[in-house]
# Entry
Amino acid sequence: MVDIAFGPEPGQRPDLTDHRSAYLEMVRRKRMYGGILMVLFVGLMASGWILAEDRNAGGFWSGVPQMGDFGAEVISEAWTNRANLPGLFLEFLPSLIETLNIAAVSTLLGAMAGMVLALLSTRGLARWPALIPVFRRTMDGLRAIPEIVIALMLIYILGGGPVPAVIAISLHASGALGKLFSEVAENADLKPVEGLASVGATWGQRMWLGVIPQVAPNWLSYGLLRFEINVRASAILGFVGEGGIGYDLKIAMQWGQGRYDKVVAIFILLFLTIFLIDRVSDHFRSRLVKGQ
Amino acid sequence: MTSFTQTPPLADQLVATFTRRRLFALSVPVVILVYLTYIFFAFDLPGLAARARLDNAAILLSDFWSHKTHVTRDNRTGEIVVAIEGENKGTYPDGMVPDWVTIQGDVTTVDLGQGNVVTYDAAGARYVVPGYGTIDIKPVNGKVAMTAPEPVPDWISVSPNKISVTTAAGRFNYSRSKVETFKYEAGWELSFFTLDSPFHGKSIVDLAELALWDPRIETARSNFSYMVSEVWTNKMWRHGDVIWAIFETILMAFLGTMGAALIALPLGFAAASNFMPLRAVRFAFRRVFDFIRGVDGLIWTIILSRAFGPGPMTGALAILITDTGSFGKTFSEALENIDEKQVEGLRSTGANGLQRARFGVIPQVTPVLLSQVLYFLESNTRSATVIGAIVGGGIGLLLTQAIQTQKDWEEVAYYITLIVLMVMAMDSLSGWLRRKLIKG
# Structure
């Protein structure tokens, strides 16, 4: 990175009559900049960790053994109650499905909104070219607000349940997907669009028949990736707010000792689900992007 | 001519293909629609309308851009308290009231604007509403009695012990123990100087004069540093704490992302097929990455906060562990896609493994890795807000606390504004760095 960032200035050519010393001069300068950056980075990291540990409730070295202790305690308790695990899996299955549904619906809604936003903010495709910056800033804004902010406010207004999480995740997803979708659409071939325009197709028809078929594989691939991200987000929002398996996990953690078999059951369910989705989406995405 | 004989089966084939495609194209929206219908009932959307608290939404929105001042009289002692948001921190000191309140002996007059005037006196209280008339309230035999023009409209609620009036200008409550008037005003009050500060209520010009050439208020320090410290330690808004919390959140994201990148780089070499000849080792590292990513950030956060307690280091470690898995995977993929020619060239000069990696590989992968790291840095700033809410550190903690009290919505609005600004700043910073470092 240093090599590229601090290379010779475009207009200022080194003196080629004495190329040896010019080269050595350049190398020296690059090494110096690299060294300065390195020292700065190491200093920032070291002081950052010291500061973070200072402001933490527990220190790093005292915490490391406790991490093992907690794990051992949880696992040993779950092991003695291992007969409960299949029953617990069944007990938490509905909340897992709720979490997955939250993720799926918000991916769907986010992708639909993202599609429209992307087409409206892509140069060459936009319905109203003058409004492109407006739609771009809208997407930036949607991406910038963390889900938790919207979810917690909506819980206050709408009460608990999955709907606040769906709205929060959808809004964020529409901003994030809109940006990625628009990057894909920018590279779409405009000839089909022109052809459709020449036969008098409306904007909607041009997009639906001329652009969507070209970009669909890449868009689907991004959608799958977003679904994976949204499953994690919906589990976390459940933990902070209400609804889904995250909420069950919070309750089980609050009970603490005696309920660790529940914690372990939820951990395993979550792990398997995320692992499975990760694999499946990886498989389909490489097929979608690289062809069959 | 031969093509002519083939036409009917080809045509049939094409028609069949098109029918199939059309059916498929039609089935996608249908499936989505069916799924959304199922969700409509599974998430109980019809019941949502009944559960939604639109009055809460109104409170939230009005708190976002305005504040209210309480003028309260204790009906037993006759003591008058004027307090912003009814909080101790915002209580006007004795002898100081806003200019729309006048206290003369027993009589207190509150001017709510637009002709709305509330008067407290020894007999009781009166509220003059323009276009309606005077609402006169007196305690009678331990009950509260009201005289008002008939018919009583629905914005006045009357019960034996309490009378509430809500108008566009403000709210008014009379109960046996106390009488309160709330006046709503735009803006976030006391956002710079609290009432006990000598700088409260001064105009910008006055403040500039004070800072630049007026005599010192405290001899020990200049007026300007006094002002800065008054803002920094503002009791109502706690700017100092909030800025620290924002800093902690950024710190978590920075330490977590950079730490993960530093750990994942050597591990990425160990998991890339062109650098690690041993298949078993490669396989083991890949499964470790998969495991780390599969154990979601939420689970890591919970386990870590058990061990290390609340604070920014716990959050940084949670981000570090989760991202090590993601970075390990993407780094090893980037390493597998490098151009082998440069490595071969170095090998021909007799460079050893470390030198080949440093001069043949790193310059090739740096742009890819760096843009990945910067992208994660930006998205982790957002995650650090949520992780902070779980582990108890940074702005996420302040935000969830403020939301859970369900009354300090102006603080929530303040935090949200800061969070959005922070995320946008990190977004442009990472974009700027990416352009600077990668494209030159």
User: Anything to note?
Assistant: Chain A touches chain B through 65 residues (CB under 8 Å). Residues 2-54 of chain A form one domain.
